[in-house]
Amino acid sequence: MIIGTFGPEGSYTEKAAKQWNRKGELHYYDDIQDTVEALIHNEVDCSVVPVENSLEGSIPLTLDLLMEHQLKIVGEVIVQINHCLLATGRLSDIKVIMSHPQALSQCRKYIKSHFRNVELRPVLSTSHAAKLASGSGDIAAIASRESAKRYGLKILDENIQDVNENYTRFIVIGNEIPEPTGNDKTSIIIYLQKNRPGALFEILEEFADKNIDLTKIESRPTKKFLGDYLFHIDLKGHIGDRHIKETLEKIKGKVGMLKILGSYPAA
Amino acid sequence: MIIGTFGPEGSYTEKAAKQWNRKGELHYYDDIQDTVEALIHNEVDCSVVPVENSLEGSIPLTLDLLMEHQLKIVGEVIVQINHCLLATGRLSDIKVIMSHPQALSQCRKYIKSHFRNVELRPVLSTSHAAKLASGSGDIAAIASRESAKRYGLKILDENIQDVNENYTRFIVIGNEIPEPTGNDKTSIIIYLQKNRPGALFEILEEFADKNIDLTKIESRPTKKFLGDYLFHIDLKGHIGDRHIKETLEKIKGKVGMLKILGSYPAA
Predict the structure, then answer these.
(1) What are phi and psi of A259, to 5 degrees?
(2) A56 pLDDT above the threshold of 90
């Protein structure tokens, strides 16, 4: 099995991909869009991309790509994030800190208190930052412990994120919805017919009536006009379960659009 | 009146601040956090920061700062965004394109089709990018028409965002909730007591019962653990309106936390 992953070697997505399937052959892509397109163009059997972080929230691009393309979510993986400060030189040599924008945000307080006058340079991924830091003594990267090993960097500090408990949820996108396991999640996107009072409430009522647990509800702009939203909803259960299937059919008649992204074993 | 704005001169936030109050004296800050802290430290009478874009969605940092600090939203401003490609040199000279990460995202398709091999460098703000581009012939900035004038750059292309209709909503944070005007919005944050099925539904039921229109509902992580959320809700009406006040009091008894951010005239 060929698995597409986001970021060069040492990325957290690589870690997620290995957690998902130890025996897969990994292909590395520069950004989330390329990782997703690799699946669409059949270069890989599935792709792993980050979807949500416990400190920073959703990855908007991943949600938007799920809306734009016909993709199936076939799995999810949760990885603990322990950001390290990596460099070839010493702390006092650091002039630039590079990392993925979300990683820079996750270490916002640490950076503000220790490196007030250092230039922050956001790059495509944490492992890309590590790769770049390996080529210059005055550049530090915020990246994983694995990246330090991979690119021969010293770990100057570790666990530097502002909140200790830092987890990222990754989704695996592929071609076939897996069979029910008894502990599954289903992801959907809905667009309400009208933005009138109570429209969202009526949809949530259908789920509440059947005691279906929503693990996540997140709005994203439709990109048509300001204040017009899609809702990304994750719920407990499999599309093959009768009560889920019936509820979604009922909701389909009440909304402007219902897109089922897939059912997959919960992480 | 002294108004804090995000970004050096020429930023979209400066435009929003001028739209809000033509006569205010503007103070410029490097990032959203500093702009907010300027108000907390009484350096300014109010501050203007972006909160939501019609293509990219919410600005997570702004939402998180509203949760972390005791801030009052006293107004909102909507600004149309027309991104231009700015440089001192010619199109063929461009080796690096700089802009705010959201602006780079908003022009994702344009960049991919015209500049596949150009380095993208995210910086703190669009106007900061314009300032940097003015110092080098091979750097282009994605920024406003105003930035071109301000920093002596040529407009190589304009309206380059992927979707023509591109608006950003800014909030004004200040010290006193304005009186009702008859066309107001109220912003709140709630934390549900438990993440059990139907918990959010029960809250929305209260609003639906009183025919209160929710213009926005957005989840943000609590930063405690993955899958634990706060909800940012905007609704039509003023906290001084009886039905709004009573509904919020009722909801207060049902949730873990209710934070009222303010009531202000709708843009």
Answers:
(1) -120, 125
(2) no
